[in-house]
Design goal:
nine-stranded parallel β-sheet, eleven-stranded mixed β-sheet, UDP N-Acetylglucosamine Acyltransferase, domain 1, elongated, alpha/beta
């Protein structure tokens, strides 16, 4: 039977696994589902249509499933879906999705979300990510596997962060950071290959060397500023490394981003795209 503090407020319609632990001064709403091994330490609020998988830990002050901070939100029954083995530290906030996207804010498995981080509506966080203290994610942000965001960084809405990317602390992220690379600064720039992270995760020296060559061709200052250069370099990299999945993944990410608005691929897919052509009205 779930272990619930007498000082907690748990709606009887909430769905709780038998071994859930809910500490004092927590609030759990009627549409909430808490999976096995989930622990709410104290002063945690889980509201809305929110589902948590197995073995998640929520620290004091965390608020999950609140309404979006979006003026277009009309009270739709959107949701938050969280996987398993995640840890949400003090005062983390996660807002539910909106009808302007798929109506879901989603977190995968084995993520560490540190204190005071915020995940806006319709964000998608994959697996094995580390989001450090006070990171601010605007709505519709997509973070792929094994991404690390340094403390205080802020991510523009509709940005996609490529897998195994490292974002330096206090970075202002306005465009899609490429996978396998270090991005930092304000304005942000690609500074090099995330060699340390890739080595820790077992990537071969050959792959890391290939990515370093790709970075030099794409981002070093001595080669920058030539018209049409990116397209040519991407084609050259495809010829040079036709069997390297990481280099090919980097190429695909850059091409997608370049098709978007201001280097944000998902921006061009938004349902309320302000840049979409409006129908002409007679007499105007």
């Amino acid at each position: 039977m779930a272990e619930i503090s007498p000082l907690a407020a748990v709606d009887p319609q909430a769905t709780l696994a038998d071994d859930v632990k809910i500490g004092p001064f927590c609030h759990v709403g009627p549409k909430v589902t808490l999976g096995p091994g989930t622990r709410l330490i104290s002063n945690v609020t889980v509201m809305g249509r929110t589902t948590l998988g197995e073995n998640n830990i929520l620290w004091p002050g965390a608020v999950i499933g609140g309404d979006p901070q979006d003026l277009k939100f009309q009270g739709e029954d959107s949701q938050v879906i969280i996987g398993s083995h995640n840890e949400f530290r003090e005062c983390v906030t996660i807002h539910k999705g909106t009808a302007n996207d798929h109506g879901i804010t989603k977190v995968g498995d084995h993520n560490l979300i540190m204190a005071y981080a915020h995940m806006g509506h319709d964000c998608i966080i994959a697996n094995h990510c580390i989001i450090a203290n006070t990171v601010q994610l605007a709505g519709h942000v997509c973070i792929e596997d094994h991404v690390v965001l340094g403390g205080g960084s802020a991510v523009h809405h509709f940005v996609t962060l490529g897998q195994h990317a490292f974002i330096g602390g206090f970075t202002r992220v306005l465009q899609d950071p490429p996978p396998f690379m270090i991005t930092e600064g304000s304005p942000s720039a690609v500074r090099g290959v995330n060699s340390t992270g890739l080595t820790r995760r077992g990537f071969s020296k050959e792959t890391i060397s290939n990515l370093k060559d790709a970075w030099k061709r794409l981002y070093r200052r001595s080669a920058a500023g030539k018209a049409g250069r990116t397209t040519t370099v991407l084609e050259d990299l495809e010829d040079a490394y036709p069997h390297d999945a990481c280099v090919l993944g980097l190429i695909a990410h850059i091409r997608r981003s370049n098709q978007g608005v201001f280097g944000r691929y998902r921006e061009g897919q938004r349902r309320d795209n302000p840049r979409a052509k409006r129908p002409r009205v007679a007499g105007q």
